[in-house]
């Protein structure tokens, strides 16, 4: 037994009791003898016992945390400490734990000390890795104790890798919505910001993609731009300038690179959307008929706009005139050659305003019923007081549209206006068509569906010799139910201006569609 350890021996005799203490130098230890007398018949017995040392067992000699994003706590790992001295072993006192090494501050260990463990009892140390910089990290966890069977302190190696957080690009919005506009919209801005965590790598935007460069333009980016965490964002200006009417869509996307994996918020792309609606030209408008107010009982239709209105047209044989509404719009349909709509008196304001301007635009949205001989010199709209004395007329001649215009050089000459001998086929079957004739300064132009199909220059004179008693007539010649000059089909819109619309304005009305 080690020095200072106590041993007990018992001896018995029926004659005497005694106690004796001696030193047993052979074992270099102090031995206490205790002799106790008894009533036995004689002889002697002897025995001895020792308590086992406490011993510390640790569940792991090392803990590896792998790669953890900097400034982020890892999951918890647990070390189990056990008093493994065996049954009856002395108690184990753990006085403290500590972290040492250059990276000790990157780890955390928790155990409420001091703690005493009886034989077989356990305690848990909670360990976490929280790197504050990038790179490999190593530290040592030391456990200080009093176990006779284990040297103190016990060391556990801790390792982990600090990695930079992934960069993140945040768009100020996921959609740029321009709503409805009749022209180029007010530009909208889009900002792209590096919103990654501190320490995340920079991102270089190499290019910006745009799936609809016809209607949407992007400015503010001329080449690769590098964004840093918390740095200045990239600001783009996006303009919606639709080339045609309708709803337009597009998508902006980025081509970007970084040493980390880029995440995007709210997504990787930005949606573009806008709708162009075109309003009709109103400057110089004298009369507008959309025929939506046609009264089948009285056979009348009143103008719905224009400085020279209102003017009412009344139908002859109105049983052959009916209102309609189809996928192209609404208006009146004429189904007989015995129909004419005309004003009951001369539209004096219209005539006066046209004569004063010596300029005119005649516009019609129509759908012919035929392009055959039944539409031979068929009058769509005219201003006349007799079949042979007309101020102007817009006609369909089978597959051609023509316009006739009276000027003071000729009381009436069908070669004034667009020359019938040079008019080409410009009637696109029986589809909905936009037909416009403009005149100003000796030049007359005929447009079909927004395209100039005929131009005549050198038309002499003005409108000073126009007949002030002329009536406005639709779908036939003045005072006629002729089967030769009647026009049949659907009429959606008729408009008259006291100026020549430009080609751009004609296209604007075409894009706007029938009224």
Please give a handful of descriptors for the protein shown:
515 residues, mainly beta, Immunoglobulin-like, seven-stranded antiparallel beta sheet, 36 strands, 44% strand
Q: Structurally, how many domains make up the residues?
A: 4
**Fraction of residues in helix:** under 10%
**Structural class label:** mainly beta
Strand content: 35-45%
The overall pLDDT average reads: 86
- Say what the CATH topology of the largest domain is: Jelly Rolls
- End-to-end distance, in Å? 118 Å
Oligomer status: single chain
Please state the CA-atom Rg, rounded to the nearest Å.
Answer: 52 Å
Uncertain regions spanning at least 5 consecutive residues: 1-47, 411-415
The major beta sheet can be summarized as: 8 strands, antiparallel
CATH architecture of the largest domain: Sandwich
Number of helices: 2
The overall strand count is 36
